[in-house]
Amino acid sequence: MRKFTLLFLFVASTTFINAQSDLYIKVKKALREDHPEISLDKHLIAVNIWSANNQESREANKQFNKNYSIYEFAKLKGGLKGLICVSINKEGESATFILNKDGATKLIQLNSVEVTNTPSNFVFDDQGQEVYKNIPSEKIFESINKLITR
């Protein structure tokens, strides 16, 4: 009986350690449905959850847009074919006008993904594991730059 319990705990712990984030699964599904032309294989996926009245999240949109332009096809740790950046408006509304005004025109907007009280941004590797979470806007470029493979 004791061996069975230890085996069960081992299997359960490895399952939870390797489990993909619920947000990653939702984003990947929405990207496949809304943008089937985008290949998700071997890409890092950066997700910024923002709202119009939160200046920090809008600044993060600008930084992720800059990174998306630079590292879209770069070889990165956890995403050998580059970076995909996604923007999700917390209120669930289309905010194309605000993104365009802020200069974040390259970001992929996903309005069909419902989010709860989650951190403001994530970067997931190609396996769905969190690489970064809650990066301050001034550290986004530096953080993504550290993932360049040489």
Give an overview of the whole structure.
The structure is a single chain. It contains five helices and five strands. The protein has 150 residues and is α/β, with parallel strands linked by helices. A five-stranded mixed β-sheet has the order 3-2-1-4-5, covered by helices on one side. The longest helix is centred in the middle third of the chain and has 17 residues, at 55-71. It starts with a helix and ends in a 5-residue tail after the last helix. The model is unreliable at 12-19 (pLDDT under 50).
Keywords:
five-stranded mixed beta sheet, alpha/beta, 150 residues
Largest sheet: 5 strands, mixed
**Quaternary arrangement of the chains shown?**
single chain
How much strand? 15-25%
DSSP helical segment count: 5
The radius of gyration over CA amounts to 17 Å
Strand order of the largest sheet: 3-2-1-4-5
Ends distance: 50 Å
Ranges where pLDDT stays below 50 over 5 or more residues in a row are: 12-19
Provide the succession of SSEs. Answer: HHEHEHEEEH
